[in-house]
Write a structure and sequence with these properties.
This protein is mainly alpha-helical. Helices cover 72% and strands 1% of the residues. Strands 1-2 form a two-stranded antiparallel ribbon.
Length: 463
């Protein structure tokens, strides 16, 4: 009885909540260990955290401009498709679906499970099977919500963003109080060069950038944003600055209370912090952190389903995944597609190996997307853009991304080689199937799944 399409339900507040909720997740609560381990000292780790924040701001500004130039949803995928062509965009989609996104979701889910169970088993570590079971239950709850309602997913993201900022405040305040009282012993000899290993720095940046990752999420839902030309740049700038300040203060608090060895030995840094600094909140903070991870899972599913939706609409993914539920107005098939891969990675994966595994592919394609901004400017010099960044921003961001990707082959050759192989495996698929157009043999199956899921093609274009 009414047109079936994705409604514009993402206001400025919801866009801000989506970005904060995607960035402040498991990263700040698990990445400090990875950054410290690969940077070698407290001082250098803080430098890495600030540099990652600055780099994230550069990338976010580039994506804000791309979001005002290219009016479709889809994030990295649509930007690469519109600027560099169909082959690199399909390779991104291939790597994103089979490696980047399921590994990323598995990392956040495992962090959710670990922190959710921590109060029940402290001071012992929670059993691994129990962690994985709770992780999957949390992921399935978010999957169900995103299949049910766009509005309720957005409302949950707003509420959990407040929880995330509260969790950071509960770590920052006691740490700053102790620092003001003169507890600076853990910062002595902060820049110890003897422990610095240059070829490990890319892995430190991967861990730090993982904590900041999410600054690009607004670009995935561009067609559902209210006044995107104004709200994308505004939401991006405010949210990234908020997160940089919050992360720097959080890390200083960690190091004020915990020594280097304590951070490296802790499976859950935030819990170790609370055990040492604020014992009265020992059962509260892990739950807040778990809810923070829950919000990141929600944001990830919300945005990646739009990538699959757009890729299907552009003819590079099966047509079923560009369909929308007739009553719920959610991209139901695209939301449900990640279910089996994330389940498998949660069951067999380890957080830090998964992080290195997907970071190579993610930053390779983000670098290519910002390279695409430079190409798009060159091809369309007269195109009016309501938001424009200085040229040195995309140039420097692209160079740093691609250089870090190249250096990571020396740092972790096994996981990076697996990630590289995953990207390259998309070549034969593209030339055998996508380049020749998709086979019509799957139309019967698509029709049956349409009836089962109650989904239809979008009736009007909103871009």
């Amino acid at each position: 009885e009414e047109a079936v399409f994705l409604r514009k339900k993402i206001t400025l507040l919801r866009a801000f909540s989506l970005l904060i909720g995607s960035m402040v997740g498991s990263g700040i609560f698990i990445s400090p260990k990875g950054v410290l381990k690969n940077s070698g000292s407290v001082g250098f780790s803080l430098v890495v955290w600030f540099a990652c924040g600055l780099l994230s701001m550069f990338g976010a500004l580039c994506y804000a401009e791309l979001g005002t130039r290219i009016t479709k949803s889809g994030g990295h995928y649509i930007y690469i498709l519109e600027t560099l062509g169909p082959l690199p965009s399909f390779l991104f989609l291939w790597a994103e679906f089979f490696a980047i996104r399921p590994a990323n979701s598995a990392v956040v889910s495992l962090a959710f499970g670990r922190y959710m169970l921590e109060p029940f088993f402290a001071p012992c570590a929670a059993p691994v099977p129990a962690v994985k079971l709770v992780s999957l239950l949390g992921y399935y709850m978010v999957l169900t919500l995103n299949s049910w309602s766009v509005t309720w997913s957005a409302r949950l993201q707003t509420a959990l963003s407040i929880v995330k900022l509260l969790a950071l405040a509960l770590i920052i305040v006691p740490g700053m109080m102790l620092l003001a009282q003169g507890h600076t012993e853990n910062f002595h000899n902060a820049f110890d060069r003897q422990s610095l290993v240059l070829d490990k720095l890319p892995l430190a940046f991967y861990a730090g950038m993982f904590a900041y990752s999410g600054w690009f999420q607004a670009s995935f839902v561009r067609e559902e944003l209210v006044r995107p030309e104004r709200n994308i740049p505004l939401a991006v700038i405010v949210s990234v600055i908020t997160v940089i300040v919050g992360y720097m203060l959080t890390n200083v608090s960690y190091y004020t209370v915990l020594g280097t060895q304590d951070v490296l030995a802790s499976p859950a840094v935030a819990v170790s912090f609370v055990q040492r600094a604020f014992k009265s909140l020992i059962s509260v903070v892990p739950v807040l952190v778990a809810l923070s991870c829950f919000g990141t899972m929600n944001g990830g599913i919300f945005t990646f389903s739009r990538t699959l939706f757009v890729a299907s609409r552009e003819g590079q993914w099966p047509p079923l995944f560009s369909m929308i539920h007739i009553r719920r107005h959610t991209p139901l098939p695209a939301v449900m597609l990640m279910f089996p891969l994330v389940t498998a990675m949660v069951c067999i994966g380890d957080i830090y190996h998964l992080m290195n595994f997907f970071s190579f592919s993610r930053w390779l394609f983000i670098g290519l997307a910002t390279l695409g901004l430079i190409v798009h400017r060159h091809r369309h010099p007269d195109l009016h853009s309501p938001f424009k960044v200085p040229l040195f921003v995309p140039v420097s961001f692209t160079i740093i991304c691609l250089f870090t990707v190249a250096m990571s082959f020396y740092s972790d050759p096994v996981n990076i080689s697996i990630g590289c192989t995953m990207v390259l495996s998309g070549f034969p698929v593209y030339y055998l199937i996508i380049h020749r157009q998709m086979s019509n043999r799957c139309h019967y199956l698509t029709h049956k799944l349409q009836l089962l899921l109650e989904v239809v093609q979008q009736e009007i274009k909103t871009y």
